[in-house]
Design goal:
Layout lengths: L2 H34 L9 H8 L2 H35 L1
Helix pairs in contact: 1-2, 1-3
């Protein structure tokens, strides 16, 4: 695959998964902060719990798809980096 195509897919995929990653990250951070403090600093609403790891089977599919998208994003980033590095090394 050409580097220009990889960069395009990397950029578009990043923009698509950003909101979903942000929700997972923020809710996970809230859960972590809640469990670190004794007594808990705040009580999380059931909606936050539902957002982070709820919705049964559809939620599981969503998290699997998001995980695969993050892995694809990471692999594309590594390949792009390696190509840039090999070009700069040849000079």
């Amino acid at each position: 695959m050409k580097e220009a195509s990889m960069r395009k897919y990397h950029r578009v995929l990043g923009l698509v998964i950003f909101p979903f990653m942000a929700v997972q990250t923020v809710t996970g951070l809230l859960f972590s902060m809640q469990y670190l403090a004794i007594p808990p600093l705040f009580d999380l609403s059931p909606e936050v719990r539902l957002l982070h790891y709820g919705y049964a089977a559809p939620g599981n599919v969503y998290r699997i798809v998001l995980s695969v998208a993050i892995l694809v994003q990471a692999v594309l980033g590594v390949v792009i980096y390696q190509r840039i590095w090999s070009r700069s090394r040849r000079r």
